[in-house]
Amino acid sequence: MFQYDEKVLKDQLLELIRLAATDLPKDVVDAILEAQQNEPEGSAARSVFGMLLKNIDLARDESTPICQDTGTNIYLIHIPEGVSMLKLTALIKEATAEAVEKSYLRPNAVDSITGKNSGNNIGEGQPFIHFEEWDKDYIEFKLMLKGGGCENVSTQYKLPDVALGAGRDLDGVYKVIVDAVNAAQGLGCAPGILGIGIGGDRTSSHLAAKTQLFRKITDTNDNPELVELEARLKDDLNKLGIGPMGFGGNTTVLGVKMGALHRLPASFFVSIAYMCWAYRRHSMILKASGEVTYD
Question: What φ, ψ does residue 216 adopt, rounded to 5°?
């Protein structure tokens, strides 16, 4: 039976939230540094990347949020058999409310009917928590903070798309992704990272797209066909010239991550989860011994 001290775990979850809000992962920072080196000296794009890197350093050093919009809190949690989802959900909500008190998070949860802010980031569907059971003997918490600007340019297509000449194949997938990024232009706080969900239904396709955003920029897709398509899209999207914040430049996206689901014969959805440069995600492993590690 997997056991843990609830007070200790609540504090460990609070630290996970603090890290996600104030400290970008190394693979993201490295990608931004590389993008800066790929822009000409004296260009607006290189200057923008310089400001982003300064922002990243200040947030980490002073433990303050990287962006004023601390985003939707999205959890993907893997649990061994027998671990209570209800208890973990309660601890996450407790840690979230405390994170608001400590100003790691901005109160972002607004009642869609009354317009009233809950004041502590707790509300219907907030935070969003997705559980999956696995056969390992530890708990993995993955947290992503997704801002409103990039969420607003996320989208979904239904193939075929006659206007774009996009059929029900990977070439059609390629065409709608290029269309989505071109339409976003400087919105969504470029350079972006794209999570793509191919297939499924409308709901599962969006979830698959966001799940892709938990991958590291440096990893490799398990599907050989998607390895090639991810690389080709990254290269071609960066030729659009949109650049950081839409100022023009050689880097419009930092990465493209794709996943595919089975679908109904009658449906072919392609979902695009657009993530801003403030690619805030961290994970935490809790072992049965009580040992915790963060990544």
Answer: -80, 150
* Contact (Cβ atoms closer than 8 angstroms) between residue 148 and residue 71: yes
pLDDT digits (tens, 9 = 90+) for 187-235: 899 999 999 999 999 999 999 999 999 999 999 999 999 999 999 999 9
Asked whether the beta carbons of 78 and 134 are under 8 A apart, the reply is: yes
Cβ within 8 Å of residue 164, ≥6 positions away: 172, 175, 176, 179
Give per-residue pLDDT as tens, 9-66: 999 999 999 999 999 999 999 999 999 999 999 999 999 999 999 999 999 999 999 9
Instruction: Please state whether the peptide bond connecting residue 80 to the residue before it is cis, i.e. omega within 30 degrees of 0.
Output: no
Q: Are 52 and 44 in contact (CB under 8 A)?
A: no
**What is the C-alpha to C-alpha distance for residues 183 and 191, in angstroms, rounded to an integer?**
14
For strands 72-79 and 138-146, give the pairing. Answer: antiparallel
Q: Please name the residues in contact with 97: beta carbons below 8 A apart, sequence gap of 6 or more.
A: 120, 121, 122
For 235, residues 6+ apart whose C-beta sits below 8 A from its C-beta are none
> CB-based contacts of 31: which residues, under 8 Å, 6+ apart?
217, 254, 255
Average pLDDT over residues 228-252: 95
CA distance 221 to 207: 17
**Phi, psi for 107 (deg, rounded to 5):** -65, 110
Is pTM beyond 0.85? Reply is yes
Rounded Cα distance between 81 and 77, Å, is 13
Position 116 scores a pLDDT of 97
